[in-house]
């Protein structure tokens, strides 16, 4: 793995080589990831995985024609061949009048903000094994748990550098750690499985392995002996585990590509009331130790916190440079990219702000409803907003959780669902996309 400084030098040199060879513009992205994962099952070591890989990608332009090429060989001869191959491909590519690098005057020129995303630790496999064993033991100790699907603990580090022929040259590194446990409760036809997982940028921020395992076990036992419920229209409450999926549907509808293709159910709603008044949805790429934090976007633009939804109103689209040109707008610092291909647009640390009510108060007046803890399938139409997903969870009766429920489908339209949404006050920052418990009125539940 190259240091950040060496990675920046390598990408800058590759861009310079592309320009000398005849490219009108170019950018280069270096990405290196290394990870260690230890898995256990039934108290015994099952697997130790160690991986490390580095790749450099080059995107170059000849007029309005472009091509992207990549190599895992960073030697001089390999990179010279990469430039030659990329130029040959670009000269044969079709013209795209929207293609190009980000506007030079929008690039990050200041010192990137310190986001504390890398703790520089490298926990030994023995330490990871200990965490995995602790998580599994705690899960298996829960009364009613009968089998283990195993537990794991992981550690990794990523180094990224980006250089452009317009003068940007930046890089940063991140660390990441996780712990997972999955168990089965019950016997025979009564068996139910569930899991728990937690991730963090700093090893010291990880939740105790025993707590993760105990939660996995409790979740599995709680799902035993599910019942079917009669179909009807009722309030549906999305547990914190599944609420972020609603935000993913929102983001998919407001990225520049979807808007430019006119494949978004929110196409005509810019500046309008999409959620109830008071709802705030924020993307914050500068949150210290955030799982999605980044000092610059995939094109070298500065990043900044932004309320995507403010007081229930949609404030704008998420745009990379190409989609911004297509729409006659400016890029928003939300470009995302991998080694190959052009950038797209996406979020960093996204969350829906907490509401005023506790989860208990949120359901206190529900005579009959459904609390959803798991969603199945991908039944969301991004063009119409029609929503239909298989669901697992718990019946809500007289303001309290009753027995577990399975084999149901929940349906609605995202436009209506967003307007009928109420968040609870239990927001926690555990993932890159977060939401509190969410209640949605008037959804269709198809059961027995």
Summarize the structure.
By secondary structure, the protein is an alpha+beta fold. The chain has nine helices and 19 strands.
What percent of residues are in strands?
Answer: 35-45%
In the sheet with the most strands, the strands line up as 3-2-1-4-5-6
Q: Count structural domains.
A: 2
Our Rg estimate from Cα atoms comes to: 24 Å
Organism: Sphingomonas morindae
Protein name: TldD/PmbA family protein
Family: Belongs to the peptidase U62 family.
Domain Metalloprotease TldD/E C-terminal: 231-447
Short key terms for the protein model shown above:
about 450 residues; alpha+beta; PmbA/TldD fold; 2 domains; 6-stranded antiparallel sheet; 5-stranded mixed barrel; 9 helices; about 35% strand; globular
Please characterize this protein's 3D structure.
The chain is α+β, with helices and mostly antiparallel strands and 448 residues long. It folds into 2 domains: 4-220, 2-Layer Sandwich (PmbA/TldD fold), CATH 3.30.2290; 226-448, no CATH class. The protein is built from 9 helices and 19 strands. It has helices spanning 4-20, 76-92, 125-140, 209-222, 244-254, 256-261, 321-327, 359-363, 414-419, and strands at 25-41, 44-62, 65-71, 145-164, 169-185, 192-200, 232-238, 281-283, 306-310, 313-314, 335-336, 344-345, 350-352, 368-376, 386-397, 400-413, 421-423, 433-434, 438-446. The strands form 4 sheets. A 6-stranded antiparallel beta sheet has the order 3-2-1-4-5-6. Strands 7-14-15-16-19 form a 5-stranded mixed barrel. The N and C termini lie far apart (55 Å).
